[in-house]
UniProtKB/TrEMBL annotation:
Pfam families: SRR1
Transmembrane spans: none
Record protein name field: SRR1L protein
Stretches assigned to the SRR1-like domain: 5-128
Alphabetized InterPro entries for the sequence: SRR1-like (IPR012942), SRR1L (IPR040044)
Entry's family note: Belongs to the SRR1 family.
GO CC entries: cytoplasm; nucleus
Source organism (scientific name): Grallaria varia (variegated antpitta)
């Protein structure tokens, strides 16, 4: 069991009442919008990011861009394979390059669909990054660590700071 105080939450849409209720439950609210750029800091970390924009996943990968850090995180969120299937490869590589680069180092299992919520949770998967798969990626994958900016991105789904 994970103690509530070790659970950090952030949603820019939290109301003051929601934030107060979460804090009353002993959960820790992150003080600012990190735009998904949250480092794991050497600890195994689960990110629950259902229905988040692609930029949030890309930013999370960027902020943990090393085999050692990525191997410590698990993401429950939109399917990376689904993102790859729905986007033109040039758009994926230009706007969401960290998702594109890590696909071959990712294990992904789709969560089962619920018959009542077929249109809501139909694209949710659990993602993890086994160290041995990450280490098999070409070394140049890890060389480029420029912070994503999304200047040419037409469908940016992120709430900025």
């Amino acid at each position: 069991q994970v103690p509530p105080a070790r659970c950090a939450l952030f949603d820019p849409a939290f109301s003051a009442r929601e934030a107060a209720a979460l804090e009353a439950l002993g959960l820790r609210l992150l003080p600012e919008n990190e735009e998904g750029k949250h480092g794991v800091g050497g600890s195994a970390t689960l990110f629950y990011m259902v229905h988040c924009g692609k930029a949030l996943y890309n930013n999370l990968l960027w902020s943990n861009w090393s085999p050692a850090a990525l191997s410590k995180l698990v993401i429950i969120g939109n399917s990376f394979r689904g993102i790859e299937e729905r986007l033109l490869s040039r758009i994926l590589e230009r706007d969401y390059s960290y998702i594109a680069k890590v696909l071959k180092g990712t294990e992904e299992v789709a969560l089962p669909s619920h018959p009542r919520y077929l249109d809501t949770f139909n694209d949710t998967s659990v993602h993890w990054f086994p160290l041995d798969k990450l280490q098999e990626l070409p070394p140049e994958v890890w060389d480029f660590v420029e912070e994503p900016t999304y200047e040419d991105c037409e469908d940016l789904e992120i709430i900025r700071k």
